From TrEMBL:
Domain of life: Bacteria
Compositionally biased region (Pro residues): 159-169, 347-356
Region annotated Disordered, chain positions: 84-112, 146-210, 324-356
Name of protein: DUF4439 domain-containing protein
Length: 356
C-alpha cells in the first residue's frame, strides 16, 4: 500500500515539474545590434578626438589645414553617432565597445578612423542586409575623413585597403571543386553581359541592384567621355581620368555579377546629357547616383559579396567628397535614408575634447 502511495506522489511531482513553465530568458542582442553598438562607441571616441584637434594646437602642421579637416571629421562623426544613438532595438551594455583613449594628433586620429572603418566592414557578412548597408556607408564616410586628415597633416595619404576581390573566375581547366554551381556554357564570365533581348537572371540575389550599379557606372563613363571630347588641356585630362575610374568601377560590378551568377541586361546604346552636365552640381549628382547604387548593392548582395560591394561604395565616396557635398552626404555616402534621418534627428551634445 505504501509503495502505491509513493508511486502516486512521484507521478504527481513529476507532472508538476513537467507542467511548470521554464523561466523566461531575455533575448540577447542580435549580431546587427552588437555591430551598431560598437559603431556608436567608436564614433563617440573618434568625435571627441577630432573635436580636440579642431580646437587646440595639437594638430600637426599645417595647423590650419589639419584643424579644418578635424572640424569636418567632428561634424561627420557627430552625425554618425547621433543616428546610431537612435538605432532601434535593445542592446545590452555588455555589448558596447570599451572606451578607448582618444589619439592626440592628426595622424593618430586618421589611423583610428581607418581602424574603425575596417571594423565596420568586418561585420558586414554577419548582419542583415539593411544593417550591412548602413555599416558600409559609415565605413566609407570614415575612410574619407581618415584620408583627408592624413593629407591635411602633411603626411602621406592613409593607405587605401586593396579591393576585396570576389571569388575568382575559374581558369580554363578548373578543379571540379572550384566550379560554381551556376556554371554556364562559356564559364561564369558569361554572366557579365547578355545579348539584346535576353532577360537577366531576376531570381539571383542582388540582380536588380547589380544591373542598376552597372548602368550608373556606364552613365558616368559616357558622361565624362563626352565632356572630355568637348574640353581640352587639363580639363580634358581630368574627365578622361574620371571616365577610366568609372570604367574600372563598372568592371568591379561585373565581377560581382559573375561571382553571383547574375546575367546582366544588354548595355545601353548611350545616355542623354543635360546642357549643364559639366557643372559641379551635375557632376556631384552623377557621382552620388553611383554611390547610391553601390550602397543599395551592399544591402542586397549575398553576405560573401558585401565586402566587394563596400569597396565600390568606398571608391564612390572618395570621388564624391571633393565636390562640395554636405556633411550628411559625407557621413553617409550613398545612404539617402540615413542622411535624411540624421539631418532631422536631435543631435547629441558636441563631442568633448579629449582633455575636457
Amino acid at each position: 500500500m505504501w509503495l502505491a502511495a509513493v508511486g502516486v506522489a512521484l507521478a504527481v511531482g513529476s507532472g508538476v515539474a513537467l507542467l511548470a513553465a521554464p523561466a523566461a530568458v531575455p533575448p540577447g542582442p542580435t549580431a546587427g545590434e552588437t555591430a551598431l553598438a560598437h559603431a556608436e562607441a567608436d564614433a563617440a571616441v573618434l568625435a571627441a578626438a577630432a573635436a580636440g584637434l579642431s580646437t587646440s594646437g595639437a594638430a600637426a602642421a599645417p595647423v590650419d589645414g589639419a584643424q579644418q579637416a578635424a572640424a569636418r571629421a567632428t561634424r561627420v562623426l557627430d552625425l554618425q553617432r547621433g543616428l546610431l544613438a537612435g538605432s532601434p532595438g535593445p542592446v545590452s551594455p555588455t555589448t558596447t565597445a570599451p572606451a578607448a583613449t582618444p589619439p592626440a594628433d592628426a595622424a593618430g586620429v586618421a589611423e583610428a578612423l581607418d581602424t574603425s572603418a575596417q571594423a565596420r566592414r568586418r561585420d558586414l557578412g554577419g548582419v542583415d542586409g539593411p544593417t550591412a548597408r548602413l555599416l558600409a556607408s559609415l565605413a566609407a564616410g570614415q575612410q574619407v575623413q581618415a584620408e583627408r586628415l592624413h593629407a591635411a597633416a602633411g603626411g602621406a595619404s592613409a593607405p587605401v585597403p586593396p579591393p576585396t576581390a570576389p571569388p575568382a573566375v575559374p581558369s580554363a581547366e578548373p578543379s571540379p571543386s572550384s566550379v560554381p554551381s551556376c556554371n554556364r556554357a562559356g564559364g561564369p564570365s558569361s554572366a557579365g553581359r547578355s545579348s539584346a533581348g535576353e532577360p537577366s537572371a531576376g531570381s539571383a540575389q542582388g540582380s536588380s541592384e547589380l544591373a542598376t550599379t552597372v548602368r550608373a557606372e556606364q552613365a558616368a563613363v559616357w558622361t565624362y567621355t563626352v565632356l572630355a571630347a568637348r574640353s581640352e588641356g587639363a580639363v580634358r585630362a581630368g574627365h578622361l581620368a574620371s571616365a577610366a575610374a568609372h570604367a574600372s568601377q563598372e568592371d568591379a560590378a561585373r565581377a560581382i555579377a559573375d561571382a553571383s551568377c547574375v546575367r546582366l541586361p544588354a548595355d545601353a546604346p548611350g545616355f542623354a546629357l543635360a546642357p549643364d552636365a559639366a557643372t559641379p552640381a551635375s557632376l556631384a549628382a552623377l557621382e552620388d547616383s553611383a554611390a547610391q547604387a553601390w550602397s543599395q548593392l551592399v544591402g542586397a548582395a549575398a553576405p560573401q559579396q558585401r565586402e566587394a560591394a563596400a569597396d565600390g561604395l568606398a571608391a564612390a565616396a572618395r570621388r564624391l567628397a571633393p565636390l562640395g557635398i554636405t556633411p550628411e552626404e559625407e557621413a553617409f555616402p550613398g545612404h539617402t535614408e540615413a542622411r535624411s534621418a540624421a539631418s532631422q534627428a536631435p543631435q547629441p551634445s558636441p563631442a568633448a575634447s579629449p582633455g575636457g
